Structure formats: C-alpha cells, structure tokens
From TrEMBL:
Binding of substrate, residues: 90, 96, 129, 160
Gene it is expressed from: mdh
PANTHER family: MALATE DEHYDROGENASE (PTHR23382)
Entries under CDD domains matching the protein: MDH_chloroplast-like
Source organism of the structure: Nocardioides gansuensis
Reaction(s) this enzyme catalyzes, per UniProt: (S)-malate + NAD(+) = oxaloacetate + NADH + H(+)
Name by which UniProt lists this protein: Malate dehydrogenase
Superkingdom per UniProt: Bacteria
Annotated catalytic residues: 185 (proton acceptor)
GO molecular function, one term: L-malate dehydrogenase (NAD+) activity
InterPro entries assigned to the protein according to its UniProt record, in alphabetical order: L-lactate/malate_DH, Lactate/malate_DH_C, Lactate/malate_DH_N, Lactate_DH/Glyco_Ohase_4_C, Malate_DH_AS, Malate_DH_type2, NAD(P)-bd_dom_sf
Family as reported in the entry's similarity comment: Belongs to the LDH/MDH superfamily. MDH type 2 family.
Keywords: NAD, Oxidoreductase, Tricarboxylic acid cycle
Length: 323
C-alpha cells in the first residue's frame, strides 16, 4: 500500500524512542510509507526536535512525515498504530501505588484521546511500565475501541527466553518454536518450556527441572537489572526491538507462537479482563490465544502466581478510580 501508515509513539524523546523511531522510519513494520506522530511532555519537546533533525538527516525513503507535540488528541488523530512507550519512571521513595497512580493519569488521558481521535482500526501496544496494567487503564478509558486492540509488551521477555534456551542447548534461535511467556511483565513472568520444541524435540526433555527453576527463569526475569548493572543504563535497543517485533507480527501475521499480553477471555483460567501474556498467533491482523495447550502443575502454579500479581494491580487501580 502507498498510503502512509500513521504511527504514534509516546515518550518519543526517551531512550527506547531513540532506537525505535529510526527503525520504524527504515521500514521495520513493513515495506510501506510511514508517518510518525510523536508525543512528549512539554519539557522534552526541544530534545525531541533534535531527534527529528536526525530523522531528517537519514533521508529515509519511506518516511512520509513527522509531527510532534504534547497534546494527545492532536498526535493521535487518525493513527492506526499507537506505541505507548512514555511512562513515569519510579523515583526514590515512590511505592508501587504512587507509581500506578502517576501512570494512571497518563494512561487514562491517553486512552480517552485514542478513543476520540484514533483511526477505527487502531492497534495500541503499551511498553511503558507497569505495561500490563497501563494497558488495562488505557483500554478501560476507551469504550469505543474494542478491548482486543489493547496489548502490552512481553515480547522482550519472550526474546530473552528464546536466546537463553538457544545458548543452553547450543542451537540457533531459529531451531526454537512454541515458546511462550505467561502472566505479567515483571519478575513473576513465566516462560513455559514444557510445550516448546527445539529441533523437533521437546525442550523440557533436553534440560532438567533444576536448571529451569534455579537458573533459566531467574536469568530471564532479572535480565533487565543485569543490563542496568553492565551498561549503567536500562535496556533500550532491545526493548525497542521487541516493541517492533510485537507490532510487526500483529500487523503482518505469525508463523509460530509469539508472546503477547492481551485482555484475557478467561482462557486457561486466567481472570477475564486483565491484560496477561499468552501464546498467540496472528492471522489477518487479528490475534488469537493458542488453545488446547496442556499445562503441567508447575506451569499452572507459576501462571497463577503471576496472574495474582495482575489482579493485585487491577484492584489497586480500581481503588484509585482509574478503571
Ligand atoms: P525509556 O525510554 O528507557 O523507557 C520508557 C518506558 O518503557 C519506561 O516505563 C520503562 O519502564 C519501559 N520499559 C519497558 N520495558 C523496558 C525495558 N526492557 N527496558 C527499559 N525500559 C523498559 O525511558 P526514558 O526515561 O528514557 O524516556 C521516557 C520518556 O517518556 C521521557 O522522554 C519522558 O518525557 C516521556 N514521557 C512522555 C509522556 C507522554 O508522551 N505523554 C508521559 C510520560 C513520560 P521502567 O521505568 O520500568 O524502566
């Protein structure tokens, strides 16, 4: 198609934005023209202007236009894709309720602005943390947009889980299929290897349970912290990459399971309505939660624990009047 895809990115002047925008403009979502709509808070707009100068200086053939601003209604006008990256970072002395409340204001406002201004086919992906609950807030404040158009990012956990397994077994990542992250994007997320295939054989039969419990899951869960320790800054390029992977697959379809945090329809006993990660496939721009997967007791227990975290967050934002 030659009509530009209108893509909004919030928090566009941040670390993740700095990786994300250049890849979007280079055609990462597909070989079609793209128009970028970049939202920032007022104080970050001068810095965002510098990023736009750099986008100009790349002379990207597919970049049909860039608009920046601090008003979500204007920026979200007519967009078919919204990547909600900007969020309030947790500051010294802030507890989880403070964080949920600060972000609640951002995501209620953005949900309403999407509801009133985005294109009818809009797909919304939340990367800003706490991503699953921020997505729930935005979704709840956008009654005219079907719930299933609100997703949150667990693809980075998925990609991390894939590479850690590939390294353990000494195979390329392309040998791995049917891997999936379940639950919340926090340290309770659960990568299920019991349904994963490596080179046509069960992954779980090629590793032992102690490795899964004591090494694999903790390594994937604490990877963000390990990166902060090593590079003195949080993961940004890989978070941008995962954001692109998720949206690319949602728009263009999948050939294998991918991990997507989506509003639960009650599948696998996951509380209906919360935004939780599931193995999904995508056809014609619509995702489906993979059905008929057998979960063992270990998996069921881990998933229930992560779902309990999501329920706790939901209860808190409900109490704050955000949903
Ligand atoms: P980043 O670009 O590094 O991160 C943005 C958000 O993504 C954070 O909430 C961060 O969570 C989250 N995130 C999700 N996965 C990851 C991951 N694997 N690694 C790192 N982060 C991850 O933050 P910056 O502070 O550089 O930039 C944020 C920008 O957002 C600022 O420019 C700010 O002005 C803007 N902002 C814009 C708003 C708007 O457009 N209305 C509203 C609020 C902020 P975590 O905090 O847990 O690391």
């Amino acid at each position: 198609s030659t009509t530009p895809l209108k893509v909004a990115v919030t928090g566009a002047a941040g670390q993740i934005g700095y990786s994300l925008l250049f890849r979007l403009a280079a055609g990462a979502l597909g070989d079609r023209p793209i128009e970028l709509r970049l939202l920032e808070i007022e104080p970050a707009l001068p810095s965002l202007e510098g990023v736009v100068m750099e986008l100009d200086d790349c002379a990207f053939p597919l970049l049909a236009g860039v608009e920046i601003g601090a008003d979500p209604a204007a920026i979200f006008s007519g967009v078919s894709v919204a990547m909600l990256v900007g969020a309030m970072p947790r500051k010294e002395g802030m507890d989880r309720a403070d964080l949920l409340s600060a972000n609640g204001k951002i995501f209620t406002g953005q949900g309403k602005a999407l509801n009133d201004n985005a294109a009818d086919d809009v797909k919304v992906l939340v990367t800003g943390n706490p991503a699953n609950t921020n997505a729930l807030i935005a979704m709840s404040n956008a009654p005219d947009i079907p719930n299933e158009r609100f997703n949150a990012l667990t693809r980075l956990d998925h990609n991390r889980a894939k590479t850690q397994l590939a390294k353990k077994l000494g195979v390329p990542v392309t040998e791995i299929s049917q891997l999936a992250i379940w639950g919340n994007h926090d340290d309770s997320m659960y990568p299920d290897l019991f349904n994963t295939m490596v080179g046509g054989k069960s992954a779980a039969e090629q590793v032992d349970q102690a490795w899964i419990t004591d090494e694999y899951i903790p390594t994937v869960a604490t990877r963000g912290g390990a990166i902060i320790k090593a590079r003195g800054a949080s993961s940004a390029a890989s978070a941008a990459n995962a954001t692109i992977d998720h949206m690319h697959d949602w728009l263009n379809g999948t050939s294998d399971w991918v991990s997507m945090s989506v509003p639960s329809d009650g599948s696998y006993g996951v509380t209906e309505g919360i935004v939780s990660s599931f193995p999904c496939t995508v056809t014609d721009g619509q995702y489906e939660i993979v059905q008929g997967i057998e979960l063992n007791d270990f998996s069921k227990e881990r998933i229930a624990a992560s779902v309990a975290r999501l329920e706790g967050e939901r209860d808190q934002v409900k109490q704050l009047g955000l949903i």
